[in-house]
Write a structure and sequence with these properties.
The chain has 9 helices and 2 strands, in the order H-H-H-H-H-H-H-E-H-H-E. It is mainly α and about 190 residues long. It has one domain: Endonuclease III, domain 1. It has a two-stranded parallel ribbon. It is globular, with a radius of gyration of 16 Å. The two termini are about 20 Å apart. The mean pLDDT is about 95.
């Protein structure tokens, strides 16, 4: 992989670099992709992102290509199957939360027309550019991620603490936290 100036958090593997260069921080307005990142971020809680990235394709297969409409209808048998799948994170509470979160995701779509309208409504539909000079300038939470987290929890979502929500905001480009010297900064 070509060596370019990148955010230092992604330098440990080619998979990390590829994710950083092609996905992280790029605005996502598509509900299916927003749900994929929501599911992955909730499983990441307490773990490293590279752990999730390494298992992403396993998650994709196990969770029906992140189809929230199917996930919302998972039976106990399907949940038990997931809990036996060594390719994913087999945390019982997180697996159950995937189903609950899919159900609540659909409720938000029904209320707002799309999850995208709901989530991007917190930023008036535009990315927030934090313009960090170094990685030390990037925070794990913000007052806005606190607000979104509280609202999601009020709506019944699980594993959506402020840190998870902020990571979701970064991943889906709601915030641009690429450091000043990163080649993707103004892409």
């Amino acid at each position: 992989m070509e060596e370019k100036n990148r955010c230092s958090w992604c330098l440990s593997s080619d998979l990390y670099k590829e994710y950083h260069d092609q996905e992280w921080g790029k605005p996502v307005y598509d509900d299916a992709t927003l749900f994929e990142f929501l599911l992955l971020e909730t499983f990441q809680a307490g773990l490293s992102w590279i752990t999730i990235l390494n298992k992403r394709e396993n998650f994709r297969k196990a969770f029906d290509n992140f189809d929230y409409k199917k996930i919302a209808l998972y039976s106990d048998d399907k949940i038990q199957e997931l809990l036996l799948n060594p390719g994913i994170i087999r945390n019982k509470l997180k697996v159950y939360s995937a189903v609950t979160n899919a159900q609540n995701f659909i409720k938000i779509q029904e209320e707002y027309g799309s999850f995208s309208k709901y989530i991007w409504g917190f930023t008036d539909g535009k990315p927030i550019d934090n313009k960090p000079k170094t990685l030390k300038d990037v925070t794990a939470t913000t007052p806005l991620s606190d607000t979104i987290s509280k609202d999601l929890k009020k709506r019944g979502f699980k594993f959506v603490g402020s840190t998870v929500v902020y990571a979701h905001m970064q991943a889906t480009g709601m915030v641009n936290d690429h450091i000043e010297s990163c080649w993707t900064r103004n892409q």
